[in-house]
Amino acid sequence: MAIHAEDTFIGDTALGGHRYYATVSALEESELNVIEHAHFKSCVIKHPEVSFMIIDSLIRKARLAALQVEDLSLRKADQRVAHFLLELSNEIGKEVEHGILITVRMTHETLANLTGLARPTLTSVLGELTAKGAITTKEHMFIILDKKRLTDIADDIFA
User: Fold this and answer.
1) Pairing of strands 93-96, 135-138
2) β-pairing, 135-138 with 99-102?
3) Cα distance between residue 139 and residue 121, in whole Å
4) Terminus of the chain with fewer CB atoms < 10 Å: N or C?
5) Neighbours of 14 (CB within 10 A)
6) Is pLDDT of 125 > 60?
7) pLDDT score, position 72
8) Residues in a beta bridge with 40
9) pTM score > 0.85 for this model?
10) Distance (Å) of CA 158 to CA 33, 51, 56, 74, 76
11) pLDDT digits (tens, 9 = 90+) for 72-89
12) Is 76-155 in CATH node 3.40.430.10?
């Protein structure tokens, strides 16, 4: 599972003419456009730059999948959450007066699912990260207050 920024391709692995078997849930109002395989092929022929957009999207998703495998196999709960919030801040974060606002509203359950944790565990970890001054929340959005502290927690894999 992942959170995708605006103008992201979903289901791009189906562009080879294969079925796409994933489920997508929108966290906010979204617009979805379906591109038929034949139309996609003609578009790529007329506009080769579209191929590079798809390649960039696939590379991003492969990178995110590799990071998720690393997180699930090597990181403790607090490290997973810290790492995930840092990745989100890089993808969809916005500089605000007191830190970096992750511009998507997320429930604890959504974040727990994204990090492979039980919701009570996630809630406990968020409390710890808040107590350490690394993050805060506002209206179901996260604000990274101390990126270095969060990075230190996330990068301490072998602690």
Assistant:
1) unpaired
2) unpaired
3) 20
4) C
5) 15
6) yes
7) 64
8) none
9) no
10) 43, 40, 31, 8, 9
11) 666 789 999 998 899 889
12) no
The identity of residue 152, as a single letter, is D
pLDDT confidence of 159, banded at 50, 70, 90?
A: very low
Q: Following DSSP, what letter does each residue of the chain receive, concatenated?
A: -----TT--SSGGGGGS---------SS--------HHHHHHHHHH-THHHHHHHHHHHHHHHHHHHHHHHHHH--HHHHHHHHHHHHHHHHEEEETTEEEE-S---HHHHHHHHT--HHHHHHHHHHHHHTTSEEEETTEEEES-HHHHHHHHH-TT-
Report the C-alpha gap between 84 and 90 in whole angstroms: 10
Mean per-residue pLDDT over the chain, rounded: 82
